[in-house]
Amino acid sequence: MEVVEVKQVTTKTAPRFTGKRYRLDKPELLAPAGNLEKLKFAVHYGADAVYIGGQKYGLRSNADNFSFEEMKEGVEFANRYGAKVFVATNIYAHNEDISGLEDYLRELEAAGIAAIIAADPVIIETAQRVAPKLEVHLSTQQSTLNWQAVKFWKDEGLPRVVLGRETSIEEIAEIKAHVDIEIEAFIHGAMCSSFSGRCVLSNHFTDRDSNRGGCCQSCRWKYDIYEDDIQMVGMDADKFTMSSKDLCMLEHIPDLIDAGIDSFKIEGRMKSLHYVATVVNAYRQAIDSYMADPENYELKPIWLEDIQKAANRPVNTGFFYDTPGAEDHIYEPEDKAVPYDFAGVVVSYDESTGLAVVEQRNHFKPGTEVEFFGPNGTFFKQVVGQITDTSGNGLDAARHPLQHVVMKTEHPVKPMDMMRKRVR
Amino acid sequence: MATKPELLIDAGSLADMERLIAAGADAFLIGESRYGMRLPGDFDLAMMGEAVKLAHSHNVSVYAAVNNLMDNDTVETLPAYIRGLAEAGVDAIVFGDPAVLMAARAEAPGMKLHWNAEMTSTNFATANYWGRRGATRFVLARELNMDQVIDIKKNTELEVQVQVHGLTNIYHSKRPLVQNYFQHQAKNGETVSVPVYGRREDGLYLVEAERPGERFPIYEDAGGTHIMSSDDLCMIENLHELMEVNIDSFRIEGLLKSIEYNETVVRAYRAAIDAYCADPEGYAFNEEWLEEIVKVQDPSRELSYGFFYKEQVY
Fold first, then answer.
1. Which of B177, B185, B312 sits opposite A233 (nearest CB)?
2. Domain A2-194+245-326, architecture per CATH
3. Please, what CATH class does the domain formed by B6-168+231-304 belong to?
4. Could you give phi then psi for residue B7, rounded to 5 degrees?
5. Domain A340-422 classified CATH 1.10.3720.10?
6. Residues A313-358: pLDDT tens digits?
7. Mutate which: A198, A216, A222, A244, vs B, most B CBs within 10 A
8. In this complex, how many residue pairs, one in chain A and one in chain B, have their CB atoms less than 8 Å apart?
9. Is ipTM strictly over 0.90?
10. How many Cβ atoms sit within 10 Å of the Cβ of residue A335?
11. Which superkingdom does the taxonomy of this entry point to (chain A) (predicted)?
């Protein structure tokens, strides 16, 4: 791993601890990838590692999830960028889940997967026994919150622990000070409001096992709250809910790096391609910019603005600075509509003609205001001019998903650059 | 005669312990809230010593609840606390955070350790994993069915503890969600001031629109927000199924119940266990045991079989 000299710096959101630094190299940016295409874009936009789900043992039973063949292709693609692929095997297994586990883990190892993310000791131990080349990372589902527990897992041979989301920046720094181990922390995305693994609302409401991937998000439902037989707030008032705002630590990258967090994890295996590429792009630039020149680092507002173009979700800083309060939960009805839609992906670009072939992902037509963006924050706006199909026949609109459309771009673009359009 | 399974309940005070011992309890889970999760009362180390004396004089066991998810600050105090528990003479330490295992190994070698991670203790291989690391007992998740419970018991050398009665925790957050909600309402002018609601004694519960008959108790303490099941598990009719496979300990959850209720429940299970063990083959369930419980049962809370006879999907 690349080693970069970093001086202790004080930022406005100043670290409350001084003294020894526990890491000097760049943290890993770890992104979710719900399918092969998302994996490729996450890596292309700057993820150092991606985590995916396989057909079994993962907590997103509704996601696309990867076959072993797709995993191999994903690993091959990622390796070209020097990136790694992790597989979430983070269920709490029941007896009947154990048969088949050994074969499954061997297949992951054979597919070139770098690590599994596991919570249940039966999975941890089996992986160590039958697939020694697979690293085992302790999942956040174990709700690990203190250095002594982290030390336990290090002694068990795990190279990395994903902490519970209830740890503060200060506690993370203390953990790093006590134990020489890789620490991974969620820094962006939706959050369980419960201790991870300690919620069986789905089991009780719908007979779906939350700790085996059946979570139906009952914490996002609305509830009336009563004392004795009396409803405690008016019928028209906002109802009670456990629903947390999403985590967004983009404005606090220096604090996260100073605390010594080794891997910055973005949540969202169910999220869109547009979202994954956009979020990764923003964090990639922030991390690189800070590491290049910590003392003169400044947050660029456009990084935040870009994220908001892909996800209109209220955000907060979770437990990093304080226990979440009233303002950190979502009581009001939500307006989830995003201001921009993903409209297309650049397939190829001809420098001599300035024409790009764009694969359609949403309706656009001549006159549509669009933005092109690519890795490292390349970005420009334009209005769509004339469009044709690949045989040169004029089109009044790009109507069909995945159809290839030829259009002139005002600046050069590259394959895998993305095009979004303003919708509101 | 068959080997008797243990009848285990929590208690909030020494006085409650005396009454529950008289009703037939074999063991207690007690502790203080800094270290233990969802306890009906606090026993500091001095009181732990008293509790052990009282219990041991009746041949009853005391297990110390040290099953919180610990933060760094609490970890610093664990060695002294665990030494204190050992000096108090507790019969076992109940834990769910590996930090406690580490501290107990160092400070109280030989101490019996019960692994209780609530929802996540779900298979026999995991039981054996913790067994190889020093646990002597595996406390099963409540979200398992009878076949799974029996299979775990058959495939582990550890003692197996199963909850047979009372409510269960279904959601635990570190966030003060009830206070947060009332603060939000105060801001909107819905309530005049922010009440200090949400303590256990306030008796709050949640109702979800599509399940109007089900009341889910909710309260806050230093450990965060706890939401509890709307039903009370009650396995007394089918206790023999668990006794036939020699489950080692039957847990009654006494939280949010009156001492009178808990006495009644302990008496009923005591009678069932004694009758079975005196003559397993001739055992028959006595309807009166259940009737006694039904008499004191809150009519808004269903007595249920929990997940024992359910199929779950995912």
1. B185
2. Alpha-Beta Barrel (3.20)
3. alpha beta
4. -110, 110
5. no
6. 899 999 999 999 999 999 988 777 888 999 999 999 999 999 999 9
7. A198
8. 224
9. yes
10. 9
11. Bacteria
